[in-house]
């Protein structure tokens, strides 16, 4: 799965059997992603963005709150209206292991499936935007892959190195103003064993 340091940052939540039950739902994951990316919002505003009713968004937001993914946001005193505002409780989410318990295992696999679909959709959005994208971003916008022969230990080493490299770059903060030459970018990576296409040792 994803690399997990010995001491995960306080702003990241490591999923367990309980929290997996609360997050393994496409709409909840979409709502949580919006709160993490864009900052505090309400059920009404989020419902408009994802194309569902306010009641549906409110239900799933309350579920996310029950499992500790989001919390109420008091915000500035000049906010109008009585509707609740919500904010993400953590910057990110990590799945450390696939649980052995059948129900939790099913939830973990569903969670990974929703993440994979979201990543694929993000890539398709870039493809759709390429025709009008600035030339400088066309040069660096990249979809690439390579095949490696690794042991589990070497695979973990690769993930560790990626984490160290990313630490040198500016993490997105919802309330941070971008510089004139900056854009918010999505950096995705997958490390996946390939399905066996040939017997081991066959060349």
From TrEMBL:
HTH arsR-type domain mapped to chain residues: 18-100
SUPFAM superfamilies in the record: Winged helix' DNA-binding domain
GO molecular function terms noted in the UniProt entry: DNA-binding transcription factor activity
Pfam families reported for this sequence: HTH_20
InterPro entries, sorted: ArsR-like_HTH (IPR011991), HTH_ArsR_DNA-bd_dom (IPR001845), WH-like_DNA-bd_sf (IPR036388), WH_DNA-bd_sf (IPR036390)
This protein's name: Helix-turn-helix protein
Organism: Motilibacter rhizosphaerae
Taxonomic path: Bacteria, Bacillati, Actinomycetota, Actinomycetes, Motilibacterales
């Amino acid at each position: 799965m994803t690399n997990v340091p010995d001491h995960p940052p306080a702003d990241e939540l490591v999923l367990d059997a309980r929290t997996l039950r609360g997050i393994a739902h496409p709409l909840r994951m979409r709502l949580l992603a919006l709160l993490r990316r864009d900052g505090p919002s309400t059920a009404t505003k989020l419902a408009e963005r994802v194309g569902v009713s306010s009641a549906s968004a409110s239900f799933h937001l309350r579920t996310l709150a029950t499992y500790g993914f989001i919390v109420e946001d008091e915000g500035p005193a000049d906010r109008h209206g009585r509707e609740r505002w919500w904010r993400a409780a953590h910057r990110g989410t990590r799945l450390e292991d696939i649980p052995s318990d059948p129900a939790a295992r099913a939830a973990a696999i569903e969670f990974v499936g929703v993440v994979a679909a979201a990543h694929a959709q993000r890539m398709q959005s870039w493809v759709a935007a390429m025709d009008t994208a600035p030339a400088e971003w066309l040069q660096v916008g990249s979809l690439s892959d390579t095949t490696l022969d690794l042991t589990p230990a070497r695979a973990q080493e690769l993930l560790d190195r990626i984490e160290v490299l990313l630490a040198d770059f500016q993490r997105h903060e919802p309330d941070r103003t971008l510089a004139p030459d900056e854009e918010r970018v999505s950096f995705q990576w997958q490390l996946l064993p390939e399905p066996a296409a040939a017997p081991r040792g066959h060349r």
